[in-house]
C-alpha cells in the first residue's frame, strides 16, 4: 500500500493559538511523523503544542523554551502520533509572530 506523505507549514504564530495541522486535513486515521518548531523572534520564547479532540486539549508539550534562532523537534527517533478524524494540532507562543512550524504526516493510514 502506498503511503501519502504530506506536510502542513505555519508561519509567524504568536500568542493566539493556531492550528498547525487543521482538522480539515485529518481524515480517517493519520500518523504525525514529525513536528519542528522554530523560533523566528529576536528573543527566547516558550511554546505549547496540543491536540484538540472534541472540546478537550491533550498537550504534546507545554511551556517548552526555544532560544533565539533555535528549533525544537517534538517527534523524533521514529516515534509517531496517531490522530483520529477531526483532531487538530494547535500551537501557541509566548511572543507575537515568533514561531514557524512544520508538521509532517502520513495521510489516511487506515479507515
What is the CATH topology assignment? Jelly Rolls
Low-confidence stretches: none
Provide the CATH superfamily: Satellite virus coat domain
CATH class group: Mainly Beta
Average pLDDT: 90
Category by helix and strand content: mainly beta
Number of helices: 0
Q: N-to-C SSE series? A: EEEEEEEEE
| Fraction of residues in helix | under 10%
Number of strands: 9
Secondary-structure blueprint:
Layout: E1 4-13, E2 18-21, E3 29-39, E4 45-53, E5 56-66, E6 71-73, E7 81-83, E8 88-93, E9 99-110
Antiparallel strand pairs: 1-9, 2-8, 3-6, 3-7, 3-9, 4-5, 4-8
List keywords for this structure.
five-stranded antiparallel β-sheet, globular, 62% strand, single chain, Jelly Rolls, mainly beta, 111 residues
Short description:
Helix content is 0%, strand content 62%. It contains no helices and nine strands.
Report on this model:
The chain has 111 residues and is mainly beta. The protein contains no helices and nine strands. The strands form two sheets. Strands 1, 3, 6, 7 and 9 form a five-stranded antiparallel β-sheet that branches. Strands 2-8-4-5 form a four-stranded antiparallel β-sheet, with no helix packed on it. The radius of gyration is 14 Å and the shape is globular. It starts with a strand and ends with a strand. The mean pLDDT is 90.
Amino acid at each position: 500500500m502506498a503511503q501519502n506523505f504530506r506536510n502542513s507549514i505555519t508561519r509567524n504564530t504568536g500568542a493566539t493559538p493556531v492550528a498547525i495541522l487543521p482538522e480539515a486535513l485529518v481524515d480517517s486515521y493519520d500518523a504525525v511523523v514529525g513536528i519542528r518548531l522554530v523560533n523566528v523572534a529576536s528573543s527566547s520564547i516558550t511554546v505549547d503544542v496540543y491536540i484538540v479532540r472534541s472540546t478537550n486539549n491533550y498537550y504534546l508539550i507545554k511551556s517548552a523554551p526555544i532560544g533565539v534562532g533555535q528549533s525544537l523537534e517534538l517527534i523524533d527517533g521514529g516515534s509517531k502520533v496517531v490522530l483520529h478524524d477531526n483532531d487538530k494540532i494547535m500551537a501557541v507562543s509566548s511572543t507575537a509572530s515568533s514561531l514557524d512550524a512544520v508538521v509532517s504526516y502520513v495521510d489516511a493510514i487506515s479507515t
